[in-house]
Amino acid sequence: MSPQPHFLVLTFPLQGHIAPALRLARRLLAAAPDALVTFSTTEAAHRRMFPAEAGAPDGGGGDDCRLELLPFSDGTEAGYVRSSTDPAAFTDYMASFQAAGARSVGELVDAFAERGRPVTRVVYTMLLPWAADVARDKGLPSALYWIQPAAVLAVYYHYFHGHAAVVADHRHDPSFLVRFPGLPPQAVRDLPSFLTESTDPSDFFHSVYTTVRDLFDTLDRETPRATVLVNTCQELEEGALAAVGAYDALPIGPVLPSGDEAGLFKQDGVKYMEWLDAKPADSVVYVAFGSLARMEREQLDELLLGLEETGRPYLCVVRKDIKAELADGEASETEMDAPLKNGMVVEW
Asked: Is 17 designated active site?
């Protein structure tokens, strides 16, 4: 008798990874009524996302008893502590993350087997290539969940399969066109910055570049060929999906937000949507620096001043923790404190 399907969904602790991974977990539950799903990210991110469940011994998943929320360890108590003065801290974190994460996830898989709820497949997002190695060691199949478009997957694939030198030779020529198989010509300025800037070992995100490189090495080693779940649809990106024919790339999207999901940061209601609706189409400058970047107060002041001087409407997204840090700083009035004529600053 085959065991009950049990998907272990693992994700890196970034908002842009957690949200689509959690959507996929809920989609799996809807598509397979007899399946179990365990959603897992690092302990620090888990506490922020699910404060009510963080202290629950069974990692309860809310209304659906088939969804379990359990963290794995990245080797730290607080996760990555952002630093604007020590870029090496992120590199060190990524190195320890891999070792501690692999060990912790392996222990999690063993614990499920002992509980009589064995994992039957591991699903992981792009910065966790070691998850596939853990699955292989445990005799489990795995699948990469590619949260970006298939075209981006194809760009990365062909970069790491014969086109890295071309990009490196022309990285300072933004208009140079790179011709990846199966894709329209791509200008260097339109390529992911990880492939043009982060190849330098001194770059802050060099460890991300090496992790993505390791990811494709991992996929290439899979036998039979690797399974990649892509958040897209066949009709939208048929050519891009065909361009990664070395893998079993399955379009499963679009995996859209439900509107009530958890996240690392809370958004500012609907007021910014009303503000955007009042602006002409294609007129708003969008500014956001994601989950990792850390800005000093002077940097944010200068950014907002520059945006104001453009005369263009703009929407600037600032993480709530950064905004709180800035508010606790010096009391002198700055651009962030002053009324904004052309834009809006919202929390993430």
From this structure: yes
Long-range contacts of 24-32 (CB under 8 A, 24+ apart): 24/123, 24/145, 24/229, 24/252, 24/255, 25/67, 26/67, 26/258, 26/261, 27/252, 27/255, 29/64, 29/66, 29/67, 32/5
Domain boundaries, position 144: 6-149+201-251
Query: pLDDT tens, 123-164?
Result: 999 999 999 999 999 999 999 999 999 999 999 999 999 999
What is the mean predicted confidence (pLDDT) over 75-83? Answer: 77
User: 176 with 325, same domain?
Assistant: no
Q: How many domains does the chain have?
A: 3
pTM over 0.70? The answer is yes
Domain final residue, candidates 140, 168, 190: 190
pLDDT at 84 over 80: no
Catalytic residue among 17, 46, 158, 206: 17
